[in-house]
Amino acid sequence: MPDSAARRAPGAGPARHLFVSDVHLDTGAPQAQQQFLAFLRTHAAGAHVLYILGDLFESWVGDDDGAASENSAVLAGLRELTRSGVACFLLHGNRDFLIGEDFCRETGCQLLPDPVIAAIDGEPVLLTHGDALCTDDHAYQELRTIVRTPAWQSRFLSLPLSDRQLLANEARAGSRAHTASTIPNIMDVNAAAVTAAFKAAGVRRIIHGHTHRPAVHDALVEGQPVQRIVLGAWYEQGSFLSYESGRYELRSLPR
Ligand code: MN
Question: Which of 3.40.50.720, 3.60.21.10, 2.60.40.10, 3.20.20.70 would CATH assign to domain 15-252?
Answer without folding.
Answer: 3.60.21.10
